[in-house]
Amino acid sequence: MALTNYAELKAAVANWMARADLPGEAADFVALAEARLNRELDPVRLEASLSGAAGSRVVDISQLSCEHPITLFLARPGVNEVELTPKASGTFPLVATPGRPRFWAREGEAIGFDRVLDENYSFRLHFSQWHRLSDTTPTNWLLANHPDIYLAAVLVWGGLFIRDSPYAAQFQAVLNAGLPEVKNVIAQSKRGNLTVDPMLQRIGEPLRGSISSYDPGC
Questions:
Q1: Nearest to 39 by CA among 202, 183, 168, 157
Q2: What is the pTM of this model?
Q3: What is the pLDDT of residues 14-58, one digit of tens each?
């Protein structure tokens, strides 16, 4: 069975545990597993292509499981990309006249600009991503690249739920063996580029390590 998204991961719980009576609990197992994964592993830095529609001031990023947006570039065919200036939400004036955006900020699960877009624009966003799945965020970097770690973390909780300690211990061993390897992958990627984003410098937060592919230069 494929293991590429949230639905398949929950279905795998029933298959691996040979239990058809746990569909409601599978989501809990995933959430509990992710609580540990996010404590153990730093977020990963990715990139995604975004589309901004004419007449709108925001671009939705709810499907990215974004921990922190880092840099945003405006991309136009045949023209060099332009890096837009990040600001804290509410710290820049909103321009009444539609046009090309200059400033941006995270506004909940969206990127908000300083003005309504005067045409359709394409953007490239660099961001750090939590290890978290949902119906709106069905996949992420960790599941795509290390499904064995994800499944092991989930099945630990499945074993504890059915009070089968030996079963849980098997997957705890798999998880304990695999976590250092994933930590090393993320750490190696961070050492490739130690620059700090100006927005993070201003607000005093450390840089923490595209959805198209994993960025080895973060």
A1: 183
A2: 0.77
A3: 899 987 777 679 999 999 999 999 999 999 999 999 999 999 999
Instruction: Break the chain into its structural domains and give their ranges.
Output: 6-42+133-196, 44-129
The C-alpha atoms of residue 148 and residue 47 are separated, in whole angstroms, by: 23
The pair phi, psi for residue 22, each rounded to 5°, is -120, 25
DSSP 6-23: HHHHHHHHHHHHT-SS-H
DSSP state, 204?
T
Report the DSSP pairing between strands 110-113 and 103-106. Answer: antiparallel
Q: Where are the alpha helices (DSSP H) in 18-80?
A: 23-40
User: Do residues 144 and 4 lie in contact, with contact meaning Cβ atoms separated by under 8 Å?
Assistant: yes
pLDDT digits (tens, 9 = 90+) for 129-170: 999 999 989 999 999 999 999 999 999 999 999 999 999 999
